[in-house]
Specification:
82% of the residues lie in helices and 0% in strands. With 107 residues, it is mainly α. Helix 1 (5-25) runs antiparallel to helix 4 (79-101) and helix 3 (56-76) packs antiparallel against helix 4. It is globular, with a radius of gyration of 14 Å. The termini are close together. The mean pLDDT is 92.
Length: 107
């Protein structure tokens, strides 16, 4: 059983983005969304650490952030924060997709 370090790093990135958005702009929705999706991504990373095939919460969190932040990046053209989170979310989706296609290891 290996720890899903990349998933935990992604969760920290999302949560810290919400906190930074609150500190810099006073945006309570940014704080709430960052902490909510960061927590979901962290829970998903924990579940993937326990069972590599249990990817559903991570898939929902990163898929939702890909769509929402991708649209924000498309509409504004600003890389920070929407482009960064959208890019990281796309990479996370790719990683989850690879994990879903891998055959389980025999003990």
């Amino acid at each position: 059983m290996s720890v899903e370090w990349i998933g935990f790093g992604y969760a920290a990135l999302v949560a810290s983005g919400g906190i930074i958005g609150y500190v810099k702009a006073g945006s309570v929705p940014s704080l709430a969304a960052g902490l909510l999706f960061g927590s979901l991504a962290g829970l998903g990373a924990y579940q993937m650490s326990q069972d590599p095939k249990n990817v559903w919460i991570s898939l929902v969190a990163s898929g939702t952030l890909t769509g929402v932040m991708g649209m924000r990046f498309f509409n504004t053209g600003k890389f920070m924060p929407a482009g960064l989170i959208a890019g990281a979310s796309v990479l996370m989706l790719g990683r989850i997709g690879v994990k879903m296609l891998q055959k389980p290891h025999q003990p």
